[in-house]
Structures are given as structure tokens and as C-alpha cells.
Predict the 3D structure of the following.
Amino acid sequence: MMDRRMMAGIAVVALFSVAMGCVPPPRVAGPAEATAVVERNGAVDALFSPPSPDTIPGDLRGEQIRLGYKMVVDTQGYGKRYVGNALNCTNCHLDAGLTPGAAPFVGISVLYPEYRARAGRKMSLTDRINECFERSMNGRALPPDSTKLAAIVAYIDWLSKNVPPGSAVPWRGIPRITSTHSPDPVSGKQVFERRCVFCHGTDGQGTMAAPPVWGPGSYNVGAGMARVSVAAAFIKANMPRGWGWSLTDEEAFDVAAYINSQPRPDFPGKARDWPNGGKPADAPY
């Protein structure tokens, strides 16, 4: 029997996206597509195939998955104790982690544990989630035995159920862009005023349509988005919402430079980042 509550939640996300000029979540693939894979140089590349909500079990595991979904789309409400700004997980992981090009959650479970250069060690999926809470959410880590942390993992595991172990997950993260252009925050301000203020506000503090992009309500300097190259890639692929890929690479870099030149919270643990070297040139500290 189809999980009506989960379907309703996804439908609300999709409806709000359309109402705000946003793109809808990606199409949910059928069972045949969900198991299709491609062999490439010994690696297995699965199709981007989020499972249908009617595959959520009607038991405690299903309730855990639903709680994880709620933590992602309404982090302010369900994870308030651990959040220090005005963001929700879905502000970066668009459409609850279902949008390619916006750090989707589909398939992520099969990649962990993995070595992370910024931490200088191998990290579990729970470690990575807590990094996001401490940096992107400017908050604090959830306890290891937290039911809400386990719920987020369960939700990501469920979204990854059709991705075989060993898959390359080519849609992971955000498609990077490169440019020989030197990012110009002055030009970026003009781009922001022309293309971004309607949703993010003239002061960058957000509106009912979109979150703050600087100031105390936004991500801190330790977040990946605080790097100009990462923010530019996200903006290029996804912004303005519903009009991704409409900015030039130069415009994306310029507006990212402008946004990240504005005040935002510090990250106390930044001195411990990249302990083994490899710090990116555009790290803001």
C-alpha cells in the first residue's frame, strides 16, 4: 500500500517548487530501471533511480525513514536543538536530496566510509552528517545514539537502496565548473541585484521563498559552500531556482565571490582542517 503521508510530503515540496518557479523533483524510476547498471572499466555505474515512496515499509523502519525525511525538509522544526542558523538541509540538498546537481543523497550510502581530506581521516556517513550540522547549519553534532541522526541515515540508506555497492555514483555532489576569470565581487553584486534579490532579499537575509545567504542565519566559514568554487558550481547548476545553467560561468563565480565576501559566522574548529595538507586555494581561512 502506498505511503500516503510520504507521497503528500514529496508532493508539497514539488508544488511549492512550482509555485516559486522552481524545478520539480526528478522522476522516480520504476523497478526495472532501478536495477539497471552499466559496467565501465570494472566499476558499476547505477542509474539515478530514487525509490518510490510505496517501498517504505509499514513498520518501525518506515517510521525512521519518514522521520529522516522530516529532518531534512524541516530541520528547523525537527532538529532545532542542533541548528544554529536559519537553514534546512534541503536548502543545499534540494528537494530533500532528490535533485541531481544539488548534492543529492541518492547512492551516497554506498560511498561511506571514505577518507575526507578536510578531516584528515576516514569518516562514516554519520560523521559526514554531523559535519554538515556543525558547518552548514552552524550548529552542533547530534549525539552518536541520537534517534534523529539514525533517522537521517535511514532516509539516505533508503534513497540509496537501488544503487549497488561499488557504484561510481557519477551524479554525486555538485558538477564543478572552472574559469580563468578572476572572481569579481563588485560585478557579483550587480548579478545578485539583478538575479537573486527577489528570493534572497536585498540584504541577503532571505525571504519566505529562499534562505539567507550571509549573516548569522547562513552557513559558517567552515562549510563547503563558503568556498567560492563550490558556491559558484551550485549557483551555476541550480540558481535562480528553476533557471539553473542560465548564468554564465563568470557570473556564477562573481556572484559567489560577492556572497562569500559578506559577513558570516566563524567556525571554531577551522584550525584543525586539512591536517595532512591539501587545503584548497579558495578555502576562506
